[in-house]
Amino acid sequence: MKITLPDQSVHTFDDNATPGSVAASIGEGLARAALGAKVNGKLVDLTRPIADVAAEGDSSPVHLAIVTGPRINKKGEAQWRDGTPSGGDADALYLLRHSTAHVMAEAICKLFPKTQLAYGPPLDNGFYYDLALDTPISSADFPKIEAEMKRIVEEDRPFTRYELDRDTGMGKLYDERNKYKIDNADRALDGGAQRLSFYVTGPLAAEPDEGRLFEKAPRVTNFEDLCMGPHVPSTGRIGAFKIMSVATSHWHGDVESDRFQRVYGTAFFTQAELDAHLAQLEEAKQRDHRVVGQRHGLFTIDEKVGQGLILWKPAGAIIRQELQKFILMHLERQGYSQVFTPHIGRLDLFKTSGHFPYYQDSQYPPLILREQLSTLAKENCTCAELAHKMEKGDIDGYLLKPMNCPFHIQIYASEKHSYRDLPIRLAEFGTVYRWEQSGELSGMTRVRGFTQDDAHLFVTEDQLDVELAGCLDLVKAVFTTLGMTDYRVRVGLRDPAPGKSDKFVGDAEQWDKAGESCRKAAASLGVPFTAEEGEAAFYGPKIDFVVKDVIGREWQLGTVQVDYVLPQRFNLEYTGPDNQPHRPVMIHRAPFGSMERFIGVLIEHFNASFPLWLSPEQVRVLPISDKFLDYAHSVASQLQQAAFRVTVDRSNDRLNAKIATAQQDKVPYMLIVGGKDQEAGTVSVRHRSQGDRGAVPLAQFIADLKQERDQRRL
RNA sequence: GCCACCUUAGCUCAGCGGUAGAGCAGUGCUUUCGUAAAGCACAGGUCGUGGGUUCAAAUCCCACAGGUGGCUCCA
Question: What is the pTM of this model?
Answer without folding.
Answer: 0.92
